[in-house]
Specification:
Oligomer: single chain
Number of strands: 23
Structural class: alpha+beta
Low-confidence stretches: 566-570
Distance between the termini: 54 Å
Radius of gyration: 25 Å
Mean pLDDT: 91
Bound molecules: adenosine monophosphate
Shape: globular
Largest sheet: 8 strands, mixed
């Protein structure tokens, strides 16, 4: 397909905010694509260059793009900068500035050039690559190419819309569950789209786990107390719930890759885990565990922050030597080319105990129980050690990739007593300050949660407390970098903050209560009442370990609402 034609589809997508229409346009697009193009188109319409876990970005800033447009179009840089000030979108700036040479390039060729820009390490090469690319494009192509390069395509197309479109494109709606399954196994919609194009239904049915492609992680449901836990699971396995970072570790021969819960590649954070995994005498494996820093002598755990600081790349080696992590392995998904996800928990556990002895990688502490009283006992013993709670697992439960169900259940300390559990929310916008905060220019946040089913963000609260002056200041400058001219298409809100921002930063908040409110859209019921937080306050600063899609889900929030002792109505 010509890139020009592809851009016409992008234009159609940009013009609508209806998910149905988007799916329809995308399904038409997919009918015209080759298998390679199908892969690329998936990334591009989602605003990516590659599957997100590859972490690939072009790394070109607004400033360099301005310089590039100026050089490619032979227009003075200050004029380009001025046009940018007027239009607020470098894609439109490029569109207005470009004079077309008359040729039309293939989508594959344009993508190849963008990929090259992203892979090149030297800024100068990136810039030259961008200038060359721009010189070969027509105005509308330049508009979209610039937005793609900047990572600001923002069509409002989400994964579930694309999945609907893929099913529609082969005229088999019933294929949707298989497409979803393939996606949970590889987390790469480009790969799924390509396989579907190549081999249709059979290709999807034969889709397998592959080392190096992260599996969407299994999640846990909540229960109120030990009684409810026992009612739901009966005799089951109990494990300590460690408060660390969840790792999914992949090994093929001597190559080790580590993914976070949000499927980011975080291999660089854990050199000691890479080393230990290399030493395992097996060819290939995928396992999961919680990384914590354990003080072997006292048996106590260091706070979560001690691990998260490794996100900033410097000094990781030093931390790894001075305060190495322990990984408590709690699941195994793949071993010696065998997919184990459909085995019952007990059989997976046997593999874990055979493979991991007491070292840096060790089996999670686990006990089998037969009565609710035993649950209470284990819970107490775990709390005494300063852990946050327990995980209960169904003995015959499979590994439910990407699903939250009662195969895994969590019981946390916070459920005893009133609502104390923290909720993870994403910042959607901010209010300019009032009173003493006028000077700061920021006084409150509009926050929300992600709804996976409808692929949208729903508001849950306004937050004005929990940050220090310095934190407010630093937050404002971070938010100003992702400020938007209008509400993003994938945000559903009744309230209107002073400034909308791209949903990006996650924070944890605590509230006195979850209430019903007509002002918020999270978990809205038939009577148009959503779930809202009463007296919310932020806990700490930005959660660097979470992406916007890792917020508390509407279903979880509803469950928390139901679990709380008393509810008042606004
Ligand atoms: P939550 O983040 O509250 O939904 O709890 C689920 C998380 O608990 C998982 O994603 C893991 O990171 C963590 N976790 C800690 N210990 C365990 C364990 N033994 N089994 C499973 N998950 C665990």
């Amino acid at each position: 397909m010509l890139f020009f034609r592809f851009c016409e589809f992008l234009e159609g997508l940009e013009a609508t905010s209806s998910r149905l229409e988007m799916a329809d346009i995308l399904s038409q697009l997919y009918k015209d694509l080759s298998d390679q193009e199908a892969r690329i188109a998936a990334y591009l319409v989602l605003g990516q260059i590659e599957a997100p876990f590859r972490g690939l970005e072009t790394g070109l800033s607004d400033k360099l793009i301005i310089e590039g447009i100026s050089k490619a179009c032979n227009i003075k840089q200050e004029n380009i900068a001025k046009l940018y000030k007027d239009l607020g979108d470098l894609g439109l700036v490029a569109e207005r500035s470009i004079k077309w040479s008359g040729r039309s390039l293939e989508l594959l060729r344009v993508y190849g050039e963008i990929l090259q820009i992203a892979k090149d390490r030297a800024m100068l090469n990136k810039l030259m690559g961008f200038i060359n690319l721009l010189k070969g494009l027509s105005p509308i192509e330049a508009r979209y190419a610039v937005r793609i390069v900047l990572g600001k395509l923002r069509l409002g197309v989400g994964e579930s819309t694309l999945i609907d479109a893929l099913a529609l494109s082969v005229s088999e709606r019933e294929l949707k569950p298989q497409i979803e399954r393939a996606y949970t196994l590889c987390s790469d919609l480009g790969k799924v789209a390509m396989e579907l194009k190549r081999g249709g239904k059979e290709a999807l049915e034969g889709f397998k786990l592959e080392v190096g492609y992260p599996v969407r992680m299994a999640l846990a449901e909540r229960v109120k107390d030990a009684q409810e836990l026992f009612q739901r699971l009966g005799p089951c396995a109990l494990e300590a719930k460690y408060d660390g970072l969840r790792l999914q570790v992949h090994k093929a021969n001597q190559e080790v890759t580590i993914f976070s819960r949000s499927l980011e590649n975080i291999t660089h954070m854990f050199p000691e885990v890479v080393e230990e995994t290399k030493n395992l005498e097996i060819n290939n494996i995928i396992f999961e565990g919680e990384a914590v820093i354990l003080d072997e002598e006292s048996g106590e755990f260091f706070p979560f922050q001690a691990i998260v600081r490794r996100k900033r790349k410097h000094q990781v080696e030093k931390y790894a030597k001075e305060m190495p992590v322990n990984v408590f392995v709690f699941d195994i998904l793949y071993l010696n080319s065998q997919d184990l996800t459909n085995l019952p928990l007990i059989e997976r556990r046997e593999h874990i105990e055979k493979l991991f002895k007491r070292g840096r990688l060790r089996p999670s502490e686990l006990t089998f129980i037969k009565t609710p009283e035993e649950i209470e006992d284990f819970f107490e013993s775990v709390l005494l050690r300063g852990l946050e709670g327990i995980m209960a697992k169904r003995l015959d439960g499979i590994y439910s990739a990407g699903a939250r169900n009662f195969n895994w259940v969590k019981l946390k300390r916070s459920y005893r007593g009133q609502l104390k559990d923290s909720i993870d929310v994403v910042i959607l916008g901010y209010y300019s300050g009032k009173g003493s905060r006028v000077k700061l220019g920021i006084g409150g946040l509009l926050v929300g949660i992600y709804d996976e089913i409808n692929d949208e963000f729903l508001t849950v609260s306004k937050i004005g407390s929990g940050f220090t002056q310095e934190e407010w200041q630093s937050l404002k400058s971070k938010l100003d970098e992702i400020k938007l001219n209008q509400k993003p298409k994938n945000v559903k809100s009744i309230l209107e903050p002073d400034f909308w921002v791209e949903p990006k930063y996650v924070i944890s908040v605590e509230a006195d209560e979850i209430t019903l409110s007509k002002l918020h859209t999270a978990g809205m019921d038939k009577s148009q009442r959503g779930l809202a937080l009463r007296f919310p306050r932020a806990l700490g600063y930005i959660r660097e370990d979470k992406t916007p899609k890792d917020t508390t889900s509407p279903e979880e929030l509803r469950r928390l609402y139901e679990l709380q002792p008393k509810v008042s109505v606004e």
